[in-house]
Amino acid sequence: MRCPERSGERSHVPTSSGESPDLYLKSLTLKGFKSFADRSRLVLEPGVTVVVGPNGSGKSNISDAVLWVLGEQSAKQLRGNSMEDVVFAGSSARQAVGVAEVDLVLDNRDGTLPLEFSEVTITRRMFRNGESEYLINQSPCRLLDVQELLHDTGLGRDTHSIISQGRLDEILSSKPEDRRALIEEAAGVLKHKKRKDRAVRKLASMDIHLDRIRDVLIEIDRQLKPLQRQADKAQEYRGIEAELRDLEVALAVGDLRVLQESWDAVEKREREQDAGVELARYRLTEAERELAKFQSLLEEKGLFVGDLSEQRRRLQSVLERTNSGLLLLEEKGKNLVERLSEMRQKMHQSETRLAGREREFEEIAEERAVTEAKLQALYNQLGELRRESESVKKDRLAADETLSQVMMETRKARKDVDDAREELIEVQQAMSGYAIENDMLGERLKTVRDQRSALMQTLAARRTRLDQLAAKLEHSRKEATLAASDVDKRVRLVDGRRVTLEKLREELGDVRAEVRGLEEVDRAFESASPALAWMLAREHQLKGVMGPVTDYLTVPEEYERIVERVLGADIFCVLLKSAGDVAPTVAVLEEYGAAEFSLVPVDTAVPPVLPDDGPGVRLVDVLGCSDEIWNALNTLIGDVRVVDTLEEALAVKSGPWRFATRAGHTVWPSGRVRVGPNLGDDAGVLARRRSLVDLKDRMASLDTQVGDAEASLVEATEALSAAQQDALEIEQRIATLGGEEASLREDAGRIEQSVTEADTEAAGIELRLRQIEEKTAKGSPQQRELTARIEQGLARIEELEDAAIARREERDMRFREESEVATRLSGCQVEIAAVSEREIHLKRRFAALTSETTELQHTVAQSSMTTESLEMLLQRIQPLHDVYADLLERAEHWAERLRDRARFEQADSESLRQTIHDGQDGVRAAQAALDEASAAMGDVRVEKAALEVQVTAAVKRIVEDLGVPIERALEVPAIEDRTEAAERAHRLRKRIANLGPVNPVAVEEFQGLRDRRDFMQNQLDDLLSSRKALQKVITAIDRKVRDRFLETFELVNNHFQDVFAVLFPGGQASLAMTDPDNPEETGVEVVAQPRGKRLQKMTLLSGGEKSLTALALLFAVYRTRPCPFYILDEVEAALDDTNLRRFIAFVDSLRSHTQFVIVTHQRRTMEMADVLYGVSMQADGVSKVVSQKLDRALGAQ
After folding, report:
1. Model pLDDT for residues 1142-1197, shown as the tens digit of each residue
2. How far is CA 931 from the centre of its chain?
3. C-alpha span between 236 and 1195 (Å, rounded)
């Protein structure tokens, strides 16, 4: 056993004897997961890896990490409250991280996983905001992808390959129905149950859809008949409404024409009123100009008066400032007198306080002299008390020392007696134990010999069974080879059919794209002839229209371009049934506004009279058409003959023929020649239509071929699935037989080892019995010697206790004397402290009085200086007061002169204002005249606006309400008898009213509802057939799960009995179904009877027995369906040494073909490890994989 030197390096540790597991856990990387804040990587090898560390170091987080990365969604299973708890939350020394990530690397060199990689890395990340993601080989994926990748390996969050802390007890304490999951896991039916669950959910959803569709069909059937009646009524309403609309259009146009005449009259009156308004506006402008001249004079006068007012304002400001200055001087004088009085009073108070402080100085000096004398006397007394205390303390310490020596001798004597008693008890217990052990070993020796005999019989049975299994395995392997060959053949067949289907689909897509392209070109050509497009769109309304002439022709491919050249614009010519249809059709086309169009009535078409012979071939002779349009076709191109070259056409000098060459040239009898380029194969209308028909036929053929290919692919896929299922069942049977064979070989080896151990144990028992006999003979003299030592020790203890009592009384007396002296010493120290405190207080008071006296002397001096300054300022204020009084008198004189001048200018301004007032009256008169003319103009415009509103309403009614363009409406002739038309419209409205409520979209709704019913019926039929197929799948899954469960239950039960017998020698155990008649729902009970016990309930087992029983059941499941690796977290914590040894021996027997990762505290478990990792928790709360310290610790041991 050795440890990797660093946590990030891979340790190349050889596994124990035997082959390594094919698929195993290669490494595990944790970053930010729980306590692993930093990146930590554990490199693992096949065999046994042990993880050790103190409590709370984070060992169990390693098993939680594996469980989490395999898809665990329950935070409780990961020992947390929420899934975000897996992200490192920080500590006192480390900040929290934002993401937790775990990488699990599996060695896939044997191709166990269905991926073409030798290593498969499964990664899961969890962000602190709750988002999570999975990756396989660094490619994002879903949790479902991870589960499907591992579902056949025995790994996953729902399996028992990972046993976390506390989960071992759940195996026995859980309900029988929950314990059934162990058998299902071993049977490998979990994927089938999931498939069934999906099918059941799909079936439930399908039933809901079926009920919904049936409800919809019932509702549709209920609505169809009333809706059909509404559709008939709507059809009748549309006919009446169309006639009524024509009448209303005619009436509305008549009203519009009357309004137009009124509009013209109002416009004339508006022009007359407009001229009157312009005249009144001119007169108002002249009056306003005259008024503006007088107002300008008044403004100039106002400026002069304003200057006078400004001078008066400034002089008034000077008066106010002078007054303010005078008042300020008077106020300052008053303040100076008041301050002078205050300063004199303050100086008197300071002198009085200064005298009081001097008296207090004398009192403090006397008290300080008394305090110093008293303090000196107390210090002398304190010295005497301390000397007395030291003497008493020495006497008390001497008494303590003597008492301690006596007590020490007493304790030593008691210890000697106690040691002798313990030795005596040990000797007595040893003698008793030897007697009991002698009896037990005798019984054990008999049991071991009986067990050896039973083991030899079991070994013979196992070897017989091994021979049988070898023959079955050989036969199954041959079947597997044939099944694999069949699967390969069917895979190639499916691939071939899939390739064929893809080619057909690509070809079909190309054909459809080409069809859409040709249809787009046709629509573009139709848009080139709007009249033709419009006429074809309304062909059902135009009774005499037959359609374009090209629809009735059959043209050979080599003549298509010639026909298009010859027809030219007539390629869009429309055939009519009779000449009587020409006029209505032309009227409709002119109303539509068609610019150019060609019409040919077939009944009156007269072909040209032409000779029978001529150069080349007559064009109509090579074309195919019905007799009905033969004359019409001759009318269009009957005079055309087709020749090979242009020279041949030009050679004919005269005649009635037009010649067309195959190169696209046309020669008229007049000699005119039209030369055009040779168009491509798909450039002509006829070629496009021929191509379109061929392509649609090809598209229909390809649709059929694609359907056949899809059906063939489905059939081949189903056959492949069946073959794969058969091959899988054979492989599973081989795996089961191989597992059973390996298990039997392990059992045989273990039984042989058990026989050897039984022989060794029997020899050891016999040796131990001889040793017990020798030790019993030596024990009696030792008992007598120890009894004598105890009696001597007790006598010595009594003597020492008497001496200790005398020494204790002396010690107490010395202690009381010491306490009395200490009390007097403490009183003296308290009095010294009080006197010292008083002296300190007097010193502080003396210093405070000194400072205060200095401050008072400074205040008296400062107050004296301030008083002298105030008296000097009071003498300087009086001259300034006289100057301000003289200035105030002069300012009042100038103010009186300015008031007189202002009164004169004001009188002159009043006369000018009267003139302006008269001008304003003239302006108002002119404005009144303008307002009167404008009011008349407004009345005319209101009348015009009313007419405009009526005209707009009439136009809106025609255009929006009646839906007729105003240009077409104005072309409607005037009604001769308006009264009769109005009565006719009234009768039509009455008929509409008699119809009652009409659903205008009832016809479309009826057709849509009928189409919907047909669609829903088809959906119902499809769902019913799908439901039957799904029920068959569920029945097949139930049958398969039941068979596998029963088969696996028997196999696990046999393995459980064998494993339990190994872990509990002489014990018995089995599994039982709670409801054998209902294997689909039955629970699983565990019956365990250790040797010598008859237990009725599993709860009566001890903790260690429960753990070992649960491990026996897990090992039985492991034997039935081995997993690539197992992670066991402190599963052996409750086991004693004997059971731990059995557990280790059993794990050791499995290590050759199964990988184990064990988290433990047990030393024996560590000793069996191939690789040993140590986990420690650092001071910052972060777990680290530490190996160097672990190396030193192991070396020290």
Report:
1. 888 888 888 877 888 999 888 888 888 888 888 888 777 888 887 533 333 333 33
2. 75
3. 108
Q: Which residue has the tokens 């050759």?
A: 1152
Amino acid in the structure at residue 65: A
Query: Residues near 716 by Cβ (< 8 Å), separated by ≥ 6?
Result: 490, 493, 494, 497
* Residues whose CB is less than 8 angstroms from the CB of residue 1171 and which lie 6 or more positions away in sequence, other chains included: 2, 3, 4, 11, 13, 44, 45, 47, 48, 49, 50
Strands 48-52 and 1155-1159: parallel
∠ CA 809-810-812 to the nearest 5 degrees?
Answer: 65
**Confidence bin at 1049 (pLDDT 50/70/90):** confident
Whether the Cβ atoms of residue 43 and residue 56 lie closer than 8 Å to each other: no
Rg of the chain in Å (alpha carbons): 62
Closest CA to 562 of 684, 673, 690, 672: 684
**Strands of 1155-1159's sheet, edge to edge?**
162-163, 1125-1129, 1155-1159, 48-52, 1171-1177, 1183-1185
Q: Where are the alpha helices (DSSP H) in 973-1099?
A: 978-995, 1002-1063
**Where are any strands of DSSP class E within 628-779?**
640-643, 658-661, 666-667, 673-674
Please give the pLDDT value at position 79.
Answer: 80
DSSP 554: B
Question: Around Cβ 86, how many Cβ atoms within 10 Å?
Answer: 24
Query: In whole angstroms, what is the distance from residue 634 CA to residue 597 CA?
Result: 19
User: Residue 1094 — φ and ψ, nearest 5°?
Assistant: -125, 90
**What is the C-alpha to C-alpha distance for residues 113 and 104, in angstroms, rounded to an integer?**
14
Reported confidence tier of residue 895, pLDDT bands at 50, 70, 90? low
Separation of alpha carbons 720 and 723, rounded Å: 5
Sign of the four-CA dihedral 151, 153, 154, 156: negative
CB 648 within 8 A of CB 615: yes
- Three-class SS state of 1154: coil
Classify 1168 as helix, strand or coil: coil
Which token pair is 1119? Answer: 């034997």
Containing 42, the helix (H) or strand (E) segment is strand 40-43
State the SS3 of 626-669: CHHHHHHHHHHHCCEEEECCHHHHHCCCCCCCEEEECCCCEECC
Contact 340, 867 (CB under 8 A): yes
Number of H helices, E strands in the chain: 18, 22
Using the 8-state DSSP alphabet, how is residue 957 labeled?
A: I
The sign one gets for the Cα dihedral 435, 438, 441, 446 is negative
Best CA proximity match to 1112, nearest among 1054, 1050, 1045: 1054
Structure tokens that stand for 767 in this block: 């040796």
The highest-confidence range among 832-836, 1007-1011, 1081-1085, by mean pLDDT, is 1081-1085
Distance of CA 494 to the CA centre of its chain: 40
Torsion 877-879-882-887 (CA) sign:
negative
Q: Quick check: 1122 and 1154 in contact, CB under 8 A?
A: yes
How far is 623 from 405, CA to CA, in rounded Å? 148
How far is Cα 760 from Cα 69, in angstroms, rounded to an integer? Answer: 47
Of 35-39, 697-701, 962-966, the one with minimum mean pLDDT is 962-966
How is residue 256 written in tokens? 């519009």
Q: Residue 150, SS3? A: helix
Neighbours of 226 (CB within 10 A): 12
What distances in angstroms separate CA 1059 from CA 653, 739, 746, 757, 874, one per listed residue?
118, 14, 11, 17, 125
